[in-house]
């Protein structure tokens, strides 16, 4: 098993930003996105990485960018290090498999979430109000039930902590009615297309989030796409409504942190090697099942 990569270091290359998982660099008017093996839980980055996680996120996003190319333009340019600007090529060991060169986009500050099943924050709101992001849902739904039809449940992007679910009307106020409608329709169209494919591979995409931006006047799909970090992937063969589902993500990490009764305050505890290894295998398994290829 490869050691986890938690930090990147490219002397002479301008760092553009740092997220919980990704390090972003600016070069020649484009952006280099590098997915590390960092993992967060309960809004804190853990000191233990998940081997190969960054490669799974990158390679799965590239798979979906290609799969969705007829539906939407994207910010993706290339993931071939030999095609990167010359100053980057000497960092091949850090970049291979976990990086991509993308167009610089003016990103829209809205998380575009599609839900086909009721879970997570949507389930919490439904129990309290019978709605999700203000959308009235049928009475009597159980946790993890399939919805009558997928719904658009946007959120505002938070710099720290959880993103905040908002109504479609609020999105209209923030970005205008025309763009809000485009984001809603494109989000649901992409979700439906991907969910149908995933079902043929034995995976339920319960929900997912997309990010869009503008390159000039063109609306493009950006960031990561349909990964275990941005989606709930459930194995179809174990799906049973009425409670939480087994998933291809950081479930082992969350379960471990709950088991040791961590108070969810810093510093975040380290993970045992077994938990990190099992979580890494879940990520790799999601990639294998969806793409039909090994990482």
User: Major sheet: size, sense and barrel closure?
Assistant: 8 strands, antiparallel
Number of helices: 8
Strand residues, percent? 25-35%
Q: Which homologous superfamily in CATH is the superfamily of the domain at 107-238?
A: ATP-grasp fold, B domain
Strand runs, count: 17
Residue stretches low in confidence (pLDDT < 50, at least 5 long) are: none
Mean pLDDT: 95
Radius of gyration: 19 Å
Helical content, roughly?
Answer: 25-40%
The second-level CATH architecture of the domain at 107-238 is 2-Layer Sandwich
Reported by name, the CATH topology of the domain at 107-238 is: D-amino Acid Aminotransferase, Chain A, domain 1
Spatial separation of the terminal alpha carbons: 12 Å
Form type:
globular
Which CATH class of the domain at 107-238 is shown? Answer: Alpha Beta
The succession of helices and strands, N to C, reads EEEEEHEHHEEEHEEEEEHHEEEHH
Structural class: alpha+beta
Q: Would you mind describing this structure in some detail?
A:
- 32% of the residues lie in helices and 26% in strands.
- It has helices at 53-67, 86-89, 92-95, 120-129, 168-175, 177-200, 251-259, 273-291, and strands spanning 14-18, 22-27, 30-35, 40-41, 44-45, 76-78, 99-103, 106-107, 110-117, 131-132, 135-136, 146-152, 155-156, 164-165, 203-215, 218-222, 231-235.
- The strands form 4 sheets. Strands 8, 9, 12, 13, 14, 15, 16 and 17 form an 8-stranded antiparallel sheet that branches. Strands 1-2-3-7-6 form a 5-stranded antiparallel sheet.
- The chain is globular and about 60 Å long.
- The model has no long low-confidence stretch (mean pLDDT 95).
- It has a domain at 107-238: 2-Layer Sandwich (D-amino Acid Aminotransferase, Chain A, domain 1), CATH 3.30.470.
- The chain is of the alpha+beta class and 295 residues long.
